[in-house]
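Q: Could you write out the predicted structure for this multi-component system? I'm mainly interested in how the pieces pack against one another.
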Amino acid sequence: MTPIKRIFIANRGEIAVRIIRTCRALGIETVLGVSQADRDSLGAQLADRAVVLGPAPSTQSYLKVGTVVQAALGTGCDAIHPGYGFLSENKALAEACANEGLIFIGPSPDNLDAVGDKLTARTHAENAKVPLVPGGSVDTVEEAQALATAVGFPMLIKAVAGGGGRGMKRVDRAEDLPAQLDLAISEAAAAFGDGRVYLERYVTVGRHVEVQILSDGEAILHAGERDCSVQRRYQKVVEEAPAPHLPEAMRKGLHDAAIAYARHINYRSLGTVEFLVDVERGEFYFLEMNARVQVEHPVTEAITGLDLIALQIAIAEGRPLGMTQDDIVLTGHAIECRLNAEDPDNGFMPSPGRVSQAWFPSMPGLRVDTHMTPGAMIPPYYDSMVAKLITHGTTRDEAIATMQTALKVCALTGVKTNAGLHAAIMGDETFQQGGVDTAYLPGLLARIQQGGKA
Amino acid sequence: MTPIKRIFIANRGEIAVRIIRTCRALGIETVLGVSQADRDSLGAQLADRAVVLGPAPSTQSYLKVGTVVQAALGTGCDAIHPGYGFLSENKALAEACANEGLIFIGPSPDNLDAVGDKLTARTHAENAKVPLVPGGSVDTVEEAQALATAVGFPMLIKAVAGGGGRGMKRVDRAEDLPAQLDLAISEAAAAFGDGRVYLERYVTVGRHVEVQILSDGEAILHAGERDCSVQRRYQKVVEEAPAPHLPEAMRKGLHDAAIAYARHINYRSLGTVEFLVDVERGEFYFLEMNARVQVEHPVTEAITGLDLIALQIAIAEGRPLGMTQDDIVLTGHAIECRLNAEDPDNGFMPSPGRVSQAWFPSMPGLRVDTHMTPGAMIPPYYDSMVAKLITHGTTRDEAIATMQTALKVCALTGVKTNAGLHAAIMGDETFQQGGVDTAYLPGLLARIQQGGKA
Amino acid sequence: MTGLTRDDIDHILKLIDGSDFDSLKLETGDLKLELRRKGAGPATAAPAPSAPAAPAAPAATVPAPVVASGGGSEVPAPLLGTFYHAPKPGAAPFIKVGDTVTEDSVIGIIEVMKLMNQVTAGVAGTVTEILAPNGELVEHGQALIKVQPV
Amino acid sequence: MTGLTRDDIDHILKLIDGSDFDSLKLETGDLKLELRRKGAGPATAAPAPSAPAAPAAPAATVPAPVVASGGGSEVPAPLLGTFYHAPKPGAAPFIKVGDTVTEDSVIGIIEVMKLMNQVTAGVAGTVTEILAPNGELVEHGQALIKVQPV
């Protein structure tokens, strides 16, 4: 057990502030590495110390492994928290930490290997007997055709090195397969420097459900699942926990599969196993494992009462979780809306700039994670997410009603935001019924665009 | 039933912001009357409109009845919310509202009469058979001596027109009574323009417990009690709900007495009946009734789940409460710490000035009501309270632990605050045991001053 | 055109550092410098209801402080109330653009709960603009008229 | 002493209005004007641990951008890392106060994870101050030395 005294936070925005919040509660000092564009950000003000890593572009600041490690060492930190995105699942950072005697607050380099490559992750899932979308890796057109015959169209060609929706091609007919496969391989080689691809059945109606894993290396527990089906272009917009209207057998199947996968790869840290739930077939398939804290972790915190960042730090210190599965009790329902600085009337273009008002008052059942303050600058270089509104209620209806009130009460002005879209989703009957799939949000946006009231 | 569309808020600081929060949730517009010193305050930024009433001193702005009413009329408001302090229990404002067709969000002028004068309030209590501290009004030394013989020393001489600790004199021996009485009468005449005084038994060890009343004129309900015994110079510093370690019979007795008093004066609105609980004798005595929302109302909101401001507005609109006593269920325990901009090392002198950082992040079980933002100005003209930290837990211990964490995490810098005192109280074993009396805080301060760790 | 010296700049800096940060106004010669923090301005106005007819009662006199401004002096409202241009409905206004006023010239009436307060110009000069409309609420400090001092 | 004209002031206002509000730096002639919002400055430093001994490896050269300043030019760190005054422990420092430097003069080394980066002055003049201590972390953009340009 190595108690951590000072954490270097290699991230920005709301997650940097979120990590600082828990560190202050735990009495751990923080040093925040910032780009020049973020030197006056809330995180930089709240951290015990902030150091400028480099210029605004992430490639010259937040993504420079050597600079981050040097900054952590030079400021006397004993651990690095990578947040999400940026270097959070970067094996080079985890290895550099190990070499320099720094604690990487995340899983081991081996764990990162096991989940980082999509094909390796698929193989692990097979070995762990976790259901996969029917499919497999292919090197030649002949292999692809044989696979397609066995699985059936429509199929999806995915780049092994892809992610977040990039490097995917849908193929509806056998005659299109050879050309699309060639195209996918050369595109993957160009985009990711890795031409490997694999084929999967294309699931037309699916829900995105993910299971939160906690592991100290011995005990591997789950903290329930989250439903993140409300997506636009593979970007999550609204998340909730638990997943509504899931048959209890399937819910238990998802939890068990996630634990089986984590156990198979000897996973140790916080992590999330993502599944695609095939509503038509009543089946679910492994998608991937995320070896970091997720943007949407607060909905799990709301229904479990856990502080996931504190647990992540404790695991990194080598402490046992000190609880069993029965100690994790799920209460009520939680919803998260990602408030983005973007213009819904203009193709959701990012809308950076100076915020004039930022007011998120305490309200019963509301939590807001944000780095916004009156006068804060939203730089154009990074993600446009500026706040997360999380509501928790006894029932899902109550959580929705609280979110509707919160969207009326809170204020973020000076930049355009997607608050109106969230109000439309919360007020939409289909969403209120619960259990929508990933086709839901594009459909709602089309309805709104056609002038029909959401 | 008269639905309110636009409310004029005749107040400032955190309570103005608190009222705006509920109005936004209800879809009611707000106009805030501010002094010149408050024109850039958070409330002025959040209200739909802000108008400058006059110069900084309250007597030239917040306390001018005519200006407030004119401003409400001139901005098209249909109601005035007076908050607490300032004009909140001012009969002239309530009457002016009635004359001008404005809804006064508070009780009737008659109700204000019935509770405004301490002696009248005492008489009502007697008639309502609500226990009073033994004593009564006196005009002559002879009457005072007769009363003292019957009640016994020590006694307290109180000015009828006094309040908040002003106009009180303790008398320990019969031979001191004549001179002290003369002094009290002339001081009262000089200070309040009203020389009337009354005598009461001086209760040496007492707890300040108050009962929250809700009345729509028909149903008169209580929302439990609050314990406000942690006081410094008659100023509440920490409040909690419910009152810890109260015998259940006494708790019920307090609730019943408060309802009896409110019913006797036909009270209609939100109100609070304050009692002194005599721990030695196991008795309680009526102190006074406050005909407004209290600073400490959030602890009641926390354990009841009610929005007291919303209820106050609904009653003013003429709506029935729509609930019975059984609908008000008390859950868990709540504590409020009043964060003041004052210097505990310098006799708690007010510490106005510009705030550099104001950060009160969402945390489980924490609510913060504040008008502070980074860069906000705390003017020297008004109350030094700048934020209220309210924590709610399943148990009192949990509420205290959450408050301790909140005091570590939250930041209000640039001015001196009493945050350290709150940390000392929350960490003090005597407070943690619960049920302290009004002598507690002066004792703790003396212990701290003597260098003994709190 | 008057130039600012380094001492002037030092003075600006002192004002900013030592005082209220949200806004700075500096005037020197015919130059007016005004800084205000974004988002810190007065809140935008909700529409006001139509005003009652101006009353004809005699009025108390309230001298208005004068605020110098680049394009002349603005006469601010000495108190909050309803501003009337004329002594009674239908009567001629106290002043119009182009009129010459002295410090004691009555420029309007501000009513607060039936109490009439005469407002005087507080500065001598020529009226260049009537800023506050007749019969509407004016805040304390709101500019009523503009006067080009003589 | 150069005076500011009204046009200069207009320029200041434009900079403030249109750009980042938290800080403004203006230089004209020998005058340096710097505004920074209270509380917006860099966070205060936690103590740094003692630095490792300066290595002797050969170094890549990184030109440093130059920031003009009232009392001379500050040479900022072109990247974050550990700043060393000398090519190896015990050796004479690259420069000392009073030295004359050219744009290409090496003024120190910044180490990032064993990679040595030589820093050049980027400006010609006389060294008036060594600002960043030997063997300690410097941030990107932190002032390393001060040079009075010739």
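A: Regarding packing and overall arrangement: Chain B has a mean pLDDT of 94.
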